[in-house]
Design a protein that fits this description.
This protein is an all-alpha fold. The protein has one domain: Farnesyl Diphosphate Synthase. It contains 16 helices and 2 strands. A two-stranded antiparallel ribbon has the order 1-2. α3 packs antiparallel against α4 and α8 runs antiparallel to α12. It is globular and about 60 Å long. One of its GO terms (biological process) is isoprenoid biosynthetic process. Pfam families: polyprenyl_synt.
Length: 372
């Protein structure tokens, strides 16, 4: 645990350095761009850092020495951390970009209990008395900031790989590129399902929802960070295979927990309104399971209300009760348990360091039992 906390501090320091450098570059272009720097700094100043930690422990699983769990290399080995710190920080910037774009697509007002990026820039428009449509200004500005963050993530990754053996660097870049393609594809499939679900039979909807889970979140939240870290360390095929065998099912469980929180989460903890996914019309695995069990009239009511941004609290509570009564919540909890079991069993006798295996098991518990 101590090693994880210390590494999170290193990542934050690397992010702060990057933002100071890029912020200065933007200010030289125009002081008006300080708005983007300020929003980016706030966005990158928090979060759980799960992707950074999976990246670090993927690296430690291959490069680490067999010693007490959670120890970072000694001070005289600190230069060895530069590539993995840069890669983990690049993942956090990529994640921030994805959140900015995701909030635009979902028209979300909040992120981590604070106004989402497009809402913050919308407020800037109003506070300064600018002309034109404030909402459009906010969304346009957020879209550009998300693109800027994507570019910075690539730059930081390339910087971290300069002193890594060429073969390791190539494998790392390849994995990062695949991740970027898959998560973008997953995002598109997610918005497609919100609009096209009625064109597919009930027997297809669960499979299609599972596909969104895999590509929008599961692979990029856990599997890709693990493999990126391991690739920097020069992992062999067996080590990569073990980490993928752990990462994919754990990533699925991670997203399924997120789907439950999107419907039933406490807004004081999640930082988003209760039932937000219901207002956004998310066609998740939870919804697909509920639809399979509901009677025709109850299913029709769910379909009619799901995706209505004007749902009031009473309607949200009614939908929550309907979903619980269908048995879908218990079914999904069972799926989460089975996926976690699949993930943890992949570490049995895996050719990875003992300390990393122990920490990955701890992380598996943290990401699937969370309340936010």
């Amino acid at each position: 645990m101590a090693g994880s906390l210390r590494f999170v501090d290193l990542v934050q320091n690397r992010l702060d350095d990057l933002l100071a450098d890029r912020g200065s570059a933007l200010t030289r272009i125009s002081p008006d761009l300080d708005d983007l720097t300020r929003v980016a700094r706030d966005l990158l100043g928090g979060g759980k850092r799960f992707r950074a930690l999976f990246c670090y422990w993927g690296w430690q699983a291959v490069a680490g020495r067999e010693r007490e769990a959670d120890l970072l290399p000694d001070a005289d080995d600190s230069l060895d951390l530069a590539p993995i710190t840069a890669a983990a920080s690049a993942l956090e910037i990529f994640h921030a970009a994805a959140l900015v774009h995701d909030d635009i697509m979902d028209n979300s007002d909040l992120r981590r209990g604070r106004p989402s990026t497009h809402r913050r820039l919308e407020a800037v428009h109003r506070e300064r008395g600018l002309r034109g449509d404030a909402e459009r200004y906010g969304m346009s500005g957020a879209l550009l900031l998300g693109d800027l963050l994507l570019g910075w993530s690539d730059e930081l990754l390339d910087d971290g790989l300069r002193d890594v053996p060429l073969e390791h660097a190539r494998a790392t870049r390849d994995e990062f590129a695949v991740m970027r393609t898959e998560v973008t594809a997953g995002q598109y499939l997610d918005i497609l399902e919100e609009s096209s679900w009625h064109l597919h039979g009930d027997d297809e909807q669960l499979r299609r929802a599972q596909r969104v889970v895999l590509y929008k979140s599961a692979k990029y939240s856990v599997e890709a960070p693990l493999v990126i870290g391991a690739s920097i360390a020069g992992a062999d095929a067996d080590q990569i295979g073990a980490l993928r065998g752990f990462g994919v099912p754990l990533g699925i469980a991670f997203q399924l927990r997120d789907d439950l929180l999107g419907v039933f989460g406490d807004p004081e903890v999640t930082g988003k309104p209760s039932g937000d996914d219901l207002r956004e019309g998310k066609r998740t695995v939870l919804i697909a399971l509920a639809r399979e069990s509901l009677s025709g009239s109850a299913r029709n009511l769910l379909d009619e209300l799901l995706g209505d941004p004007e749902l009031d609290d009473e309607q949200i509570r009614m939908l929550q009760s309907t979903i619980r009564a269908s048995g879908a919540v218990d079914q999904l909890e069972g799926v989460i348990r089975r996926e976690v079991e699949r993930a943890t069993s992949a570490l049995d006798a895996a050719p990875l360091t003992r300390s990393a295996r122990a920490e990955l098991l701890r992380l598996a518990d943290a990401v699937t039992r969370r309340e936010a």
